[in-house]
Protein backbone atom coordinates (compact mmCIF):
# COMPACT_ATOMS: atom_id res chain seq x y z
CA UNK A 1 0.00 0.00 0.00
CA UNK A 2 1.46 3.33 -0.97
CA UNK A 3 1.41 5.98 1.73
CA UNK A 4 -0.64 8.44 -0.30
CA UNK A 5 -4.04 9.92 0.48
CA UNK A 6 -6.54 9.52 -2.37
CA UNK A 7 -8.49 12.63 -1.31
CA UNK A 8 -5.88 15.23 -0.34
CA UNK A 9 -2.92 13.79 -2.24
CA UNK A 10 -0.69 13.90 0.86
CA UNK A 11 2.59 11.99 0.39
CA UNK A 12 5.46 11.25 2.77
CA UNK A 13 7.90 14.03 3.60
CA UNK A 14 11.63 13.53 4.04
CA UNK A 15 14.11 15.01 6.44
CA UNK A 16 16.75 14.16 9.01
CA UNK A 17 16.78 12.41 12.34
CA UNK A 18 19.19 14.34 14.54
CA UNK A 19 20.80 12.37 17.36
CA UNK A 20 22.08 13.71 20.65
CA UNK A 21 25.57 14.01 19.10
CA UNK A 22 23.95 15.95 16.21
CA UNK A 23 24.65 13.23 13.63
CA UNK A 24 22.07 13.50 10.88
CA UNK A 25 20.56 10.46 9.20
CA UNK A 26 17.81 10.45 6.59
CA UNK A 27 14.28 9.66 7.75
CA UNK A 28 10.78 9.64 6.34
CA UNK A 29 7.70 11.34 7.77
CA UNK A 30 4.86 9.01 6.79
CA UNK A 31 1.31 10.18 6.24
CA UNK A 32 -1.34 8.88 8.64
CA UNK A 33 -3.35 6.88 6.07
CA UNK A 34 -6.03 4.30 6.70
CA UNK A 35 -8.21 2.14 4.49
CA UNK A 36 -11.82 3.18 4.99
CA UNK A 37 -15.05 1.90 3.46
CA UNK A 38 -17.73 4.44 2.63
CA UNK A 39 -21.28 3.90 1.40
CA UNK A 40 -21.85 6.10 -1.65
CA UNK A 41 -25.59 6.60 -2.29
CA UNK A 42 -25.07 7.98 -5.81
CA UNK A 43 -23.24 4.79 -6.85
CA UNK A 44 -25.40 2.48 -4.75
CA UNK A 45 -22.39 0.63 -3.33
CA UNK A 46 -19.45 0.94 -0.97
CA UNK A 47 -16.05 2.19 -2.03
CA UNK A 48 -12.75 1.54 -0.29
CA UNK A 49 -10.53 4.60 -0.03
CA UNK A 50 -7.02 5.07 1.32
CA UNK A 51 -7.36 8.37 3.15
CA UNK A 52 -5.35 10.41 5.62
CA UNK A 53 -6.78 11.91 8.78
CA UNK A 54 -7.20 15.21 6.94
CA UNK A 55 -8.91 13.37 4.07
CA UNK A 56 -11.42 11.86 6.51
CA UNK A 57 -12.20 15.35 7.83
CA UNK A 58 -12.66 16.58 4.25
CA UNK A 59 -15.14 13.78 3.55
CA UNK A 60 -17.03 14.57 6.76
CA UNK A 61 -17.22 18.25 5.85
CA UNK A 62 -18.02 18.13 2.12
CA UNK A 63 -19.79 14.78 1.86
CA UNK A 64 -18.78 11.49 0.26
CA UNK A 65 -20.81 12.09 -2.93
CA UNK A 66 -18.91 15.31 -3.74
CA UNK A 67 -15.52 13.78 -2.96
CA UNK A 68 -16.18 10.65 -5.03
CA UNK A 69 -17.40 12.77 -7.95
CA UNK A 70 -14.12 14.73 -7.86
CA UNK A 71 -12.07 11.52 -7.67
CA UNK A 72 -13.90 10.11 -10.70
CA UNK A 73 -13.36 13.38 -12.59
CA UNK A 74 -9.62 13.03 -11.94
CA UNK A 75 -9.75 9.50 -13.36
CA UNK A 76 -9.25 7.56 -10.11
CA UNK A 77 -10.65 4.03 -10.37
CA UNK A 78 -12.93 3.18 -7.44
From TrEMBL:
Q: Which UniProt keywords apply?
A: Ribonucleoprotein, Ribosomal protein
Pfam families assigned? Ribosomal_L28 (PF00830)
Highest taxon listed in the record's lineage: Bacteria
Annotated InterPro entries: Ribosomal_bL28, Ribosomal_bL28/bL31-like_sf, Ribosomal_bL28_bact-type, Ribosomal_bL28_sf
Its Gene Ontology cellular component terms are: ribosome
Checking HAMAP family in the record gives: Ribosomal_bL28
Q: Which family does it belong to?
A: Belongs to the bacterial ribosomal protein bL28 family.
Q: Can you say what this protein is called?
A: Large ribosomal subunit protein bL28
Q: Name its species.
A: Dermacoccus abyssi
The taxonomic lineage of its organism, from the top, reads: Bacteria, Bacillati, Actinomycetota, Actinomycetes, Micrococcales
Tell me the gene name: rpmB
Amino acid sequence: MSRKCMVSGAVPGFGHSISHSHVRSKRRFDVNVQKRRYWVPSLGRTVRLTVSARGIRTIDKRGIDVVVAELRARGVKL
